[in-house]
Amino acid sequence: MSDKKKIRQTVIPIGPFHPLQEEPEFFKLFVDGETVTDIEINIGYNHRGIEKISEVKSFDQVTFLVERICGICSNSHPFAYCLAIEDLMGIEAPERASFIRTVIAELERIHSHLLWLGLAGHFLGYNTVFMWAWKYREPVLDIFEAITGNRNHYAMNKPGGVRRDIIDDDIPAILKMVSELVPAMDMFKGAIIDDPVIHARLKGVGILTKKDAIAYAALGPVARASGFDVDIRRDEPYGAYDRVKWNVIVEQDGDVFAKAKVRILEIYESIKIINQCLKKMPKGPIDANIKEVPPGEGIGRIEAPRGECIHYVRSDGSNSPVRHKIRAPSFMSVPTAKASIVGQQVADASIILAAADPCYCCTERMAVIDKKTNKQVLSAQDLVRMGQEKTRKLWKP
Amino acid sequence: MAKQLMFQIKDKLGDVVFQLEDKSAKRTFASIHKADLRQVAGVLHKDFKARFSIASGIDNVKNFELLYHFSFDDLGKIISIRTFVEKDDPVIDSLVPVIGPAAEWIEREIHELLGISFKGHPNLKRLLLADEWPEGKYPLRRDFKNE
Fold this sequence. Notes:
The complex is a heterodimer. By secondary structure, chain A is α+β, with helices and mostly antiparallel strands.
């Protein structure tokens, strides 16, 4: 784009907090009237140098460090890290530990997807959806508290296994919780997938084509909603995923509606996985008792709620990693906004940017600036209000 | 099937890969010279439809090591391309022209954290570090001291 052309454009800075997730990130929307013509994404407002800190912590401490990368995916990072250590050593966690890890990972997916659904509902002006989703997320967190001791930061993983067992007395409560979640999800599915206003609001909005999804190497629900069929749980089975029956949800449309649908349907699959895991869980040890980590390198990857989470660890035989590379899924999914937002309406911007379920703990801001005066013309609150008003107009006959 | 693929890749790349290490059934490390990077990445990405997962940069004190992790999702396998960059000439070809925007952010990140320059990158500015961060200080280098 030439500078001359850019001057005549209006720029909308969105940030420093994401209007949906309320996390630090900065999007500059270039707009022509009501249409978005370009976007610039700035991150790094919350960079904590965890890869660097990891080099001075012991292998056991790193598990707790990576757990603190994100409060939502607080099982995904330690899980991938532990798999990397196990890959480095050429061992596998005991079978019971793999089942426990899978149960925790799927409970985490349910609470993460419900959290997104609630927020997406709120930004469309469906505050009932917000209340519902967060209400049904609570029992999941209660279960976490019962089996791990914490609502978040479960501290279940350790290299070579898990730190706590799921005791038999807790299993009925988990089964009861997930069975009660099914009718709630049916209600959600009806309220979202069959609602004509949601159709009008989300269908054909913020389309990420399959070609773009591949070019940006999109991951998780973002990729699967665009027909790019990638799911590490199936492609490179870890944990107990190859011992239970479940389906990978793939949609072809690539719009915000498809992304919402993939997430809703994935909750059902997670429920299936949890049910089967709890029934099939074998008795036995839960820890391989790793003493020392030999020199070498290992890669661990898992399907986090937002897609492939990959950890690369190198050891020189000392007590801490020489290098620990962490790549969270949002690092690949956030840049896809560039492909999906251009040509869209400003009122749809917040929901399109939110559709990637960006997690800035893992990876980070949006405002509308008039280029002539360089002043902010719209704030994040304005954008949310615009998104909600657009829905309200559709409600009226 | 994975074996067959490895034969095909070897066949296609010929002598470009000077060391191939099958760490396990799921992990392969292939060492190449940095001049061949674009060719190898192009073959893996275009001919074998590999998905670019991420790149890791490591400071080995005597040189820099770059690992490009390519995921073969149909086979559940990661092939990591290993290449070395000299300390006195920290420049390597950018992969953005070969594999597209997926490589943009990670090359910006490695550029600012390790100080490796990517030739042909369309927008090699800072990604994570603050604007006030001093020039020529690279946090992931071994000689970096936190003051």
